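Predict the structure of tRNA-dihydrouridine(20/20a) synthase.
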Amino acid sequence: MTDYLHKFAVAPMIDWTDRHCRYFHRGLTRRALLYTEMLTADALIHGDRDRLLGFDAEEHPVALQLGGSDAAKLAEAARIGTDFGYDEINLNVGCPSDRVQSGTFGACLMREPEVVGRGVAAMKAAVDLPVTVKCRLGVDDQDIETALDALADQAFAAGADVLWVHARKAWLQGLSPKENRDVPPLDYDRVYRLKMRWPDRFIGINGGITDLAAAKAHLEKVDGVMLGRAAYQDPGLLAGVDREIYGVDASAPDLIAAARRMCAYAEAHCAAGGRMAAVTKPMIGLFHGRPGARIWRRILTVEGVKAGAGPEVIENALAGLAEAGGLESLAA
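Done. Here is the predicted structure for tRNA-dihydrouridine(20/20a) synthase.
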């Protein structure tokens, strides 16, 4: 078994897991592995690397997810990511969007496992970091038994340290990326069978996991769990990860403290010309299901987009939460 330690991760999600989201999540869990949004190899080679790759040291451990299919470009992008201080390089073999398909990467690579293998091998040769793959069960009319086995065989033969599997097919024609997160049925048992086939390799599961109880149940069958939409719909649940998943003997982080931690971060971000809304976006669901959650969301959403908005938006939202009795529910 690999010595890979990250049995809980927040999934890479386009338009969500940017540096602001990751910094916020790190205030809720010290142990979970965090991911960038998918970044294409071409963008890193030719684009503004500081803008695309810059992150705060407090975000560690943090993984860089790459999109691409050209082995040489993936190797170069992996080296760039290593130079920026990332802890892991991950190859996206799961994104079903039309734009990604037109670039011949993402989920369409499920049809080309040899290409995935070449990419993994090139990145392993280029960097001294874990190189991992995130994939689907298959695409379109592929048989999920043969498709997933073929992908895993090539990835592991090339040296992949970890395979994270989104336990659904991707439909490349007829479904939007959003629909591809819901419409294709989940098949967790297929991922469990893959783990039985590769007992000495790290296999992680993703898809439809909404709470830590479900995560712990999956960890009876596989090595890791990756949480997606629940991490932004109800980020407060991340406060239980270190204790419930990693067995850390410590109290869960205080949600109020996690919110206030973002004030100094927001002040620095806004002083550098950034928008407050970028900071508040991942915080909107923090008090999901608690008294005052609607007021919290409304203040962050409405005030966060105003010109000149700053960290006072967070304090105003906390005050609204308190007036609605939300603080009492946290102390209960």
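The first strand starts at residue 8 and ends at 10.
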